[in-house]
Amino acid sequence: MTRILITGKNGQVGHELQRALAPLGEIIAVDRQQLDLAKPDSILTQLAKLQPDVIVNPAAYTAVDKAESESELACAVNAVAPGILAQWADVHGALLVHYSTDYVFNGAGNKPWREDDAADPQSAYGLSKWRGEQAIRAATQRHLILRTSWVFGAHGANFLKTMLRLAAERTELKVVADQIGAPTSAALIADTTARLIERYLADNQRFPFGTYHLAAAGEISWHGYAQYLIGKARQLGFPLTLSPEAVLGIPTEAYPLPAKRPANSRLDCGKLRHAFGLTLPDWRDGVKQTLAALKTAN
Ligand SMILES: NC(=O)c1ccc[n+]([C@@H]2O[C@H](COP(=O)([O-])OP(=O)(O)OC[C@H]3O[C@@H](n4cnc5c(N)ncnc54)[C@H](OP(=O)(O)O)[C@@H]3O)[C@@H](O)[C@H]2O)c1
To answer: Which residues, other chains included, contact 224 with Cβ-Cβ below 8 Å and sequence gap of 6+?
Structure first.
């Protein structure tokens, strides 16, 4: 039976992967206590013990603003550790599935980024993720690097859940309107990962390893996203004090943060479509599904 190791099992994507990958083999999901990516010894000990056929690595240092003052730790987790996983995968003939981000780009222009566009990270987090990609590519060809954007889900902390909380407390809210991207649900990322691993397990000789963009279809600003999700949540009966019209758009300069955000987070997913025949659904679908799941849970 295929042994599939999932790191960071309590993260948004890690949580969904346990469900989505379960039909594909024996799932060994570990948390930070069991496998600490900041500690190379911990990584190597676990790999030697668990002997996975597929390593799926959604664990990451994801505190984007804190990374500006903790860049060494961010690099240990996001850059050094993926390189160690990749070396092990290469020596042992395993597949490494890793996740990266639109933050590897500088956010200029308004064209969706393609996989081979030049990276130019503008933040410590973005740089650490870019270095992780480079370390993987240098260590093994046996990898999938899946760049995604604006991740949300019912499990974990994210923009959607923050907006829902604030919409139950406030009557007016200001949200940045000049950064554009595609909110992508953790469930979609996990389900798509399952399709890719399934293909690898069926034929690993002709498998198109490499880097792919994996984001929901469509595009929106954070402001438009907030308005949409609050409108839908009200329709579903969430008791909210805020209406979509009372969410006001502001420019990035009006909400200063330690780490620079890309203004253009659009990811072109054409390569994934061509290589695997996968067309990803609109971002609104994931928002509706997640809101429905949250409503059922409460
Ligand atoms: N969130 C986004 O908007 C976004 C956008 C683009 C790309 N991505 C990428 O997508 C992937 C999944 O993101 P996500 O949103 O699911 O992240 P997340 O919810 O923040 O989860 C990250 C997980 O990594 C674990 N972790 C952190 N440091 C660790 C360490 N030293 N050793 C082991 N585990 C550690 C965390 O453990 P604890 O539970 O113990 O903290 C957590 O479970 C990441 O590669 C991220 O860079 C995310």
So the answer is: 177
Query: What percent of the chain has a predicted confidence (pLDDT) above 90?
Result: 99
- 219 C-alpha to ligand 1 centroid (Å): 23
For residue range 170-197, list pLDDT tens digits in order.
Answer: 999 999 999 999 999 999 999 999 999 9
CB 77 within 8 A of CB 98: no
Question: Taking the C-alpha atoms of 251, 253, 255 and 257 in order, what is their torsion angle to the nearest 10 degrees?
Answer: 140
d(CA 176, CA 247): 10
Name the residue of 151, 159, 265, 287 whose CB sits within 8 Å of the most ligand 1 atoms, as the mutation to test its pocket: 151
User: What pLDDT, on a 0 to 100 scale, did the predictor assign at position 236?
Assistant: 97
3-state secondary structure 24-39: HCEEEECCCCCCCCCC
Q: What is the pLDDT of residues 13-57, one digit of tens each?
A: 999 999 999 999 999 999 999 999 999 999 999 999 999 999 999
pLDDT tens across 106-124, in order? 999 999 999 999 999 999 9
The predicted pLDDT at position 206 comes to 94
Mutate which of 62, 73, 149, 163 to test ligand 1's pocket (most atoms within 8 Å of Cβ)? 62
Closest to 253 in 3D by CA, of 244, 261, 242, 265: 261
Report CA torsion sign: 156, 198, 93, 208.
negative
In the chain the beta strands, taken as DSSP E runs, fall at 3-6, 26-29, 54-57, 95-101, 143-148, 151-152, 173-176, 180-181, 184-185, 210-213, 220-221, 247-250
Active site residues: 125
- Taking the alpha carbons at both ends of the chain, their separation in whole angstroms is 37
How would residue 3 be classed by pLDDT, with cut points 50, 70 and 90? Answer: very high
